[in-house]
Amino acid sequence: MRWWLVATFGLVFVMVLVGGATRLTGSGLSMVDWSAVGSAPPTDEAGWKERWDLYAASPEARQVNPSMTLEEFKGIFWWEYVHRMLGRLVGVVYGVPWLVFLIRKRLKGRMLFMSTVALVLGGLQGGVGWWMVKSGLVSRPEVSHYRLAVHLGLALFIAMWLLWMMLELQASVREYGRERSRGRRATIGLLVLVAVQTVWGAFMAGKKAGWRYDTWPDMDGRFLPEAAFPTAGAWVEDGATIHWIHRTLAWVIAAAAVAWWWRARRDASTFRRRAAHAVLAAVGVQFVLGVATILAHVPVTLGVAHQAGAFALLAALVTAVHSGGPAPAGRIGF
Predict the structure, then answer these.
(1) What DSSP line would sit under 228-268, residue for residue?
(2) CA nearest to 83, candidates 158, 4, 151, 28
(3) Lowest mean pLDDT among 57-71, 105-119, 121-135, 256-270
(4) What DSSP string runs through 158-174?
(5) Is pLDDT at 145 greater than 70 in this prediction?
(6) Which residues on adjacent β-strands are paired with residue 219?
(7) Greatest extent of the chain over all pairs of C-alpha atoms, in Å
(8) Are 332 and 168 contacting, i.e. CB atoms less than 8 angstroms apart?
(9) What's the 3-state SS for 280-325?
(10) At residue 328, does pLDDT exceed 50?
């Protein structure tokens, strides 16, 4: 069962990275249709011509890429196609073993509940992905940054849910004690901060706010750029404001992480101390990646690495939260 969860978790991680690359390469609207089971990719000129004609009639092709060639279209098509097929692969890799474990009565109690929730969330994610794409297939070919945030947030939530399931299995085998870490609430608080920052990262991508300023630590010579907060709702709509909030939250998280680590490093549990070191390291790496991404004007490689850093930081914090709570009695799911 652990290998089943590890394999699914790893595939979700890969899918998140491919999704980031799909967004950064402007490939997300290259497929203007959707089906639950998917379809085979084009294999000949006729197939490619059919796909090309569908895209050419879309608002993005007419307004954003009017001079795109068929060869250039193939480049953006493959990113979106692989992203969608990875989603279906995740469903098979998770769903088939789940059904086998269910029939063999290996899933019981808490693990049955958690694994069923994961299955439902995975199915929901497919619908959310198409709901997000549809928002860009309109007169204004721009994916809603709110829907993008929901899509990314749900993917990360599913991954962390799977991680929690893995930790539950591991905890039941190791039979951790029931003592609570005194700093568990602080750990949850830090996790919430990072989750909010991740949402703002999706807003950054959806509004292309990362391209607005390529200086650091200032924003074109100012701490608060002149263009920020032009209206009351600018904090979730205006690119300059979203960028400033994302940077400011990064400083808040860095300071909070150092303060949290300073306390957690003296925990009696070796496992929890190691989890604290992992969290601090992940925060440091993610901060550096964020700065590098901005200074380099958001290249695809650094943008994807920054998204991977967010994934790793969330995983480290979830592990830290789990290590501070009581372990369930007995072996879960066996």
Answers:
(1) S--STTHHHH-HHHHHHHHHHHHHHHHHHHHHHHHHHTT-S
(2) 28
(3) 256-270
(4) HHHHHHHHHHHHHHHHH
(5) yes
(6) 222
(7) 66
(8) yes
(9) HHHHHHHHHHHHHHHHCCCCHHHHHHHHHHHHHHHHHHHHHHHHCC
(10) no
Q: Which string of b and e fits 147-185 if b means at least 16 CB within 10 Å?
A: bbbbbbebbbebbbbbbbbbbbbebbeeebeeeebebbe
How many Cβ atoms from other residues are within 10 Å of residue 201's Cβ? Answer: 24
Nearest to 285, CA basis, from 265, 315, 244, 262: 315
The span from the first CA to the last CA of the chain, in angstroms, equals 9
Confirm if 156 and 19 have CB atoms less than 8 A apart: no
d(CA 314, CA 292): 20
CB 20, CB 307: distance < 8 Å? yes
* Residues in CB range of 315: below 8 A, 6 or more apart: 159, 160, 163
pLDDT, greater one: 265 or 70: 70
pLDDT per position as a tens digit, 152-192: 999 999 999 999 999 988 764 444 444 455 567 889 999 99
What does the pLDDT read at residue 228? 84
Cβ contacts of 45 within 8 Å, gap of 6 or more = none
Interval 29-40 mean pLDDT: 82
Is residue 196 packed enough to be buried (19+ CB in 10 Å), middle (13-18) or exposed (0-12)?
A: middle
Task: Write down the mean pLDDT value for the chain.
Answer: 88
